[in-house]
Amino acid sequence: MAGHIITLFMWGYQEYYRIHVQVLVRNVLEKIGAPAEAEVLLVGARSPSSKNINSVCIEPEKGKWELSLFEGLLDSIEFNYQNHHLQNMFFNDAPSMQDKPEWMRRSSVQTSISKALEAFDTKNNVTSFCGEARRINDYYVTPVIQIPNSTFVQFPPLPPKPVNDAQVRHGFRSLIHAAVYTVLDEATEELHKPEPGRYTYDRMRDAEEIVRIAAKNFLHTAGLAIQQHYMYPNFFDTLNLVSSLMYEGVKGIGQLILVDPDNDAVEFLARFAEPVPFNEPRWVRKVLQMATTGVGVIANSRHIYGLGRLNEQHDAGAQNAFNVAFIDHYHWELHCGNHALIRSHYAVPKLPQEPFDKMSFLAHYKRLFSSSTLEEGMNMWSLLSTQSRQEHGSMIVVAEDAASESQRLSKQGTCIEPTRLTELLLRSASGIDGTILLDPSGLCHAIGIILDGEATEQCTPSRGSRYNSGVRYVQSNGPRRLAIVVSDDRTIDIIPRVRSLVSRSKIERHIATLEAASIENYHDSRNWLDDHRFYINEDQVARINSAISRLDAAPREDFVLHFATSLFEVNPEMEDSYLTD
Hints:
Elements: H1 14-32, E1 39-46, E2 56-59, H2 73-82, H3 94-116, H4 118-124, E3 126-130, E4 134-136, E5 139-148, H5 149-154, H6 165-170, H7 175-191, H8 200-203, H9 207-226, H10 235-244, E6 246-247, E7 250-251, E8 254-259, E9 266-277, H11 281-288, E10 296-299, E11 303-310, E12 321-328, E13 331-336, E14 339-345, E15 348-350, H12 358-368, H13 374-389, E16 394-399, H14 402-408, E17 414-420, H15 423-429, E18 435-438, E19 443-449, H16 465-474, E20 481-486, E21 492-495, E22 502-503, H17 504-516, H18 523-531, H19 538-553, E23 579-580
Parallel strand pairs: 8-10, 16-18, 22-23
Antiparallel strand pairs: 1-2, 1-5, 3-5, 4-5, 6-7, 8-12, 9-11, 10-11, 12-13, 13-14, 14-15, 16-20, 17-19, 18-19, 20-21
Helix pairs in contact: 1-7, 1-9, 2-3, 7-9, 10-11, 12-13, 17-18, 17-19
């Protein structure tokens, strides 16, 4: 590795390996709909047989993690090794007995590193996930993925509860947990191969495949919780298949209650004489047709036992019953009580979430229509939620000049007396072609309107006529307008687009990190700021550009690739309403 000296050296490609794992986990989080803010750390604990001068190595060695975090790590590993639960375990086969010391060593390294990071996690408000340790040269190397705790505030996991050994291995508190541990499994496998990090791009699975594996693993959580003798079926693919099937031309909409059929909380309306097996998907789909409002299909992960429901005394916190809601064709969600856990749409797993952040939408609405009240913004958010749940496409346009526009376009739709648009009226009015026209206060002035306007650069042939007509109308010069477009494929667009709110303190933290960075560790802060250029004010632009100029001018070794960063500029549309805290 010419041109780069590693002081805390474990193997030659440790930096490339860490960067690839970090890129992979960020891509995985992005694909499931979570913030892609994970960071990766490698910790190497010196093998007892080694005389290497460094007892502990970390990668990156000049990052936010101090080597002092792992003071006393080797002593901790030895203590855990001597007190390991496998010490008194005897296996019937000689190979397992031969491998047992290595298993205990790896486990002790992982446990000790996890313990050593607890203080860092608390101070920095992150959660560390430690992968399995593997021996490379003189060190037992453990990959660590750190996730900001704010991610788990946005997507709360199931509360922790006592679990047995099988659940520790296969049950997860959230899809995020399953995804992170799936990446760590992949990272551990790479450590088994020669020169990990050198050929990583050809040897590790891509993010899309990781997400599918994580979803399959996460679906085991429900089976482990409700079934004493769980057989690990591929329940994720089973639910996708069932949701894709039609019954006499009708798509399946109903609920499947995953629970022990002998649980006292189950109230059967009809119990089948012979359970219906899940390996008969068309039969399962036929049974699902009987699940109406308030009635569900009672099942565990292998069989359907009848029709029924959970009684009012059932405690969702016990995590012994889960609900699969079939929302639409090829579209389902898994819940535990009121806790939404995973959504699958056309077999693509994601975290359940609103199509837009509520606070960002309300700020966007107030920014466009300054005279509107919070109550009017909340009313529009409720209408957006109702519109997004409908089974057909529709469009709402909010316009400052709705009253005059309804008269101008009266030959292209139906004008009505100004009436507050309720959810009931929305469901009725959106049943016909055309646009519903509102003013910012929520009064409806026309329905079924055909919009006009000239084509703009924002129009695209990849989208349908409804979306493009919304773009043309909203982008026209004149009074402020907003369009909410729901396409037939359930794609939801807001025009002009809603920008997420960003934390002032987070911007400041990344700027300070960039200002203190060297050419070896500036990439993360630079990349984050580059992705958030819109939010940077004039004073911050000057500080960032000064840091970039210093880094660009720093001496570098020959033959090392360097990608220059274009200087920052203030965006004229930026204002304080885009910032939080």
